[in-house]
Amino acid sequence: xxxxxxxxxxxxxxxxxxxxxxxxxxxxxxxxxxxxxxxxxxxxxxxxxxxxxxxxxxxxxxxxxxxxxxxxxxxxxxxxxxxxxxxxxxxxxxxxxxxxxxxxxxxxxxxxxxxxxxxxxxxxxxxxxx
Length: 130
What we know:
78% helix
């Protein structure tokens, strides 16, 4: 019973607990803010301000030669792509023509089947009338 008399009331603990948590959060926020205010030194490597002579460099003639080769390869690839594209369009157009022909044929066959069905119905009716 001695412990029960020495313990503070439960309401007092619940009243002070949010205040203590808020103070801890404020201190943590203050610490983060102070750490973010430290100056961070960034260094660019290689430094753009340092100018020095290069030992190896590309001569204009070599550069133009390489660019001409690259342009030639690029033009070759472009013509291959155009050829492939045209072949693909031709194949697609043939498929479209085949599909549209099949659709038309299906419509004609359906019409023919309807005519045959109506003729069979008439024959059945004539046979039933006899």
